[in-house]
Amino acid sequence: MLSLMRVVFAITFFAHGTQKILGFPASNMNPAAFSLPWIAGVLELVGGALLIVGLFTRPVAFVLSGLMAFAYFMAHAPKSFFPALNGGDAAILFCFGFLYLVFAGAGSISLDAFRKRTSTANDTGLTGAPRRA
């Protein structure tokens, strides 16, 4: 279930990046290169893609959690104290969902888990590869 949650969060988040950077799905967003919305879009695109496959999950989730906290306090909180009124519901949910992934990891269906299994197998000599001294 952890892997499923990671993938669903990541695909939803990735879509925000494709909208800002690639214009898909079509929107009126077209942030100027190197502006704050553009940087956020790049992080959403690249970070979302990495989380979809579960690669470098903990550090990527840490960065994205911070991005969403920053987005909430910069873009939403000044409008109203209440998330239901300021449109910041998604930013809060992404922030804490990613923060959970920092501590929980990627789950068993991920490139992180595959890399760990491969590394452990190599260290124990199970693959027939020469052992490192």
In words, what does this structure look like?
By secondary structure, the chain is mostly helical. It has 6 helices and no strands. The longest helix is centred in the N-terminal third of the chain and has 21 residues, at 2-22. The radius of gyration is 18 Å and the shape is elongated. The relative contact order is 0.15.
- Class per helix and strand makeup: mainly alpha
Estimate nothing, just give the exact number of structural domains.
Answer: 1
Sketch the topology as an H/E string, one letter per element. HHHHHH
Number of strands: 0
What key phrases describe this protein's structure?
DoxX family membrane protein, DoxX-like_oxidoreductase, elongated, 6 helices, membrane, 133 residues
Write the layout of secondary structure elements.
Elements: H1 2-22, H2 36-53, H3 57-76, H4 83-86, H5 89-104, H6 111-124
Helix pairs in contact: 1-2, 1-5, 2-3, 3-5
Q: Brief description of this entry?
A:
The protein has one domain (2-108). 70% of the residues lie in helices and 0% in strands. It has helices spanning 2-22, 36-53, 57-76, 83-86, 89-104, 111-124.
